[in-house]
Design a protein that fits this description.
Elements (H helix, E strand, L loop, with lengths): L3 H21 L5 H10 L9 H7 L7 H29 L16 H4 L11 H11 L13 H7 L8
InterPro entries: NrdE_NrdA_C, RNR_lg_C, Rrm1
Family: Belongs to the ribonucleoside diphosphate reductase large chain family.
Keywords: Deoxyribonucleotide synthesis
Length: 161
């Protein structure tokens, strides 16, 4: 059984910590600092998803692996959006929030014409809170294979069946 609550909690902590990095980071040029402060992008990713499938005895291309993949990424995106909204309630939305898809009530899955399927998370409630407070970060998730990090951690670099 996958621990979605644990993933949710860790994702919220990681989101808030990455947001702090923006304020404390060293920027080699003023333009980089200005851009990060205006848009406040962060990039949460995934390591070891293929390894999780193996540990759970799920064939990589199985329907069960695809569903778990969707559920994991839905959990990460929900928790990241919720944490960013909590930060926006406290510190305000990122400077260029107005006019963004999120400011118009459209999150990533809306832009793709998809609807989250798990029923695990209250997307309508979160969208209402985002409409009220906004988001603190313009970008939240950025899954990409990182071969060198995967080698260091001893994981398979793939993140998608």
């Amino acid at each position: 059984e996958y621990d979605f609550q644990g993933l949710y909690k860790v994702t919220k902590v990681a989101t808030k910590n990455l947001n702090r990095v923006i304020d404390r980071n060293y920027y080699p040029v003023a333009e980089a600092r200005r851009s990060n402060m205006r848009h406040r992008p962060i990039g949460l990713g995934v390591q070891g998803l293929a390894d999780a499938f193996l540990m759970m005895l799920l064939p990589f291309e199985s329907d069960a692996a695809r569903k778990l993949n969707e559920d994991i990424f839905e959990t990460i995106y929900f928790a990241a959006c919720e944490a960013s909204c909590e930060l926006a309630a406290r510190d305000g939305p990122y400077e260029t929030y107005q006019g963004s898809p999120a400011s118009q009530g459209r999150l990533q899955f809306d832009l793709w014409g998809r609807v989250p399927k798990s029923g695990r998370w209250d997307w309508a409630g979160l969208k209402a809170r985002i409409a009220q407070h906004g988001l603190r970060n313009s970008l939240l998730v950025a899954p990409m294979p990182t071969a060198s990090t995967a080698q260091i951690l001893g994981n398979n670099e793939s993140f998608e069946p």
